[in-house]
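Raw record, unedited: histidine kinase
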Amino acid sequence: MNRTNQFFDKIFQNFDKVSDTEKKKVFQRLSTLWYSQNIIIENLEEGIIAIDNEGMIQGINKKACFLFSIPRNSEGESLSKCIPDNDIGKTILELVNSSDSETKLLKDNENERILQINILPIGERGRIIGTLIKAFDITKTYESAQKLKRAEQLASLTTLAAGVAHEIKNPLGSISIYVQLIDKIIKKNMDNDCQCYKDFKEYSDIIKEEIGRLEDTINSFLFSVRKLELNIEDVNINELILSTISFLKYEIEKNNVSIDIKFDKDNLILKLDERYIKQALINIIQNAIDAMNENKDDKKKEIYIKLKTIDNYAVISIKDTGTGIKDEDLNKIFEPYFTTKRHGTGLGLTNVVRIIEAHNGNITIESEYEKGSEFIIKLPLKQENQKFLNTDLLDYA
Ligand SMILES: Nc1ncnc2c1ncn2[C@@H]1O[C@H](COP(=O)(O)OP(=O)(O)O)[C@@H](O)[C@H]1O
Ligand SMILES: [Mg+2]
């Protein structure tokens, strides 16, 4: 019992002996207390309803009216009449009637809310005189906890997948060596009359193609979860673009693609990791080639590469005359595993973004469906005082 209760108890015990002035004082004290407590209860973030043993509402605050859609000024009314006849309303009445002290999570699907409900008996001098219902909207906390849980699950799944991918690499390497040995035998026997060697050749080509595809998938996956360890050096970006094109020369020629390069700046030196930026450019150019191979008409396959500087950035634009990207897919293309290709990994652009962002740059895209796409990479001209990001998902080797 607190001091205020003790004080009132004393007054009640000696009520007849207390003077009118004293009674007035007590009344004043009571009303001040009642007002201040009312303000506190009314403004609580928690919804509060107090009912008596007959289920009549003795007190209800603003938040409870809001959370349970109970009309204001419902004091004196029966809770079962005021609370809506929906799932939440029914559950609250059941909880109150079960008369156990309980904490429950309720999903309010109508209002997309998660409520934490506490049912507590109200006691007075050892008697239960009613029930207190407390409701707290924990939607945000609940959702972030769920998100965290999902992220943790995803991280452990990714670690597991990375381990499996790593394990696949070694036997795949052996299979590849043995197929090459078989290939040698086939080649030696190609003049043989037996048709079987021609068939073997066809089968071994298929096996090699499938091995290549598996290796690509595993390498992109492992790259996407590995730590990016940048080796930053002064790099001539003009030369890097040219060497990337020459690296892809075979693919470019095989697919009848012409490349149009326009450098607004010569010998532009940037601080970057040559290997990674080259890989990002290769991914974008390979996507451009794929997109142009998918064209239904025989539009000219052309890739325009431009290099210029804007403010403090080097801007590299890579534009193609491919299929373009549907509006609804534009937000998805940088997401891991999003692919529209039969044999795509959906990890190419995820890796490009990681690489560019690790260099404190950014990448944007402009695309018109059935016309073509333009990827615009911005890399800072000066990196001296900047920290390079470490955008690793996993610390996996
Ligand atoms: N230049 C482009 N033109 C049209 N679509 C593109 C282009 N680049 C990427 N995309 C779209 O983005 C998707 C994801 O690309 P990416 O992450 O490299 O994975 P993948 O190439 O394995 O599909 C592609 O499947 C394609 O739908
Ligand atoms: Mg790709």
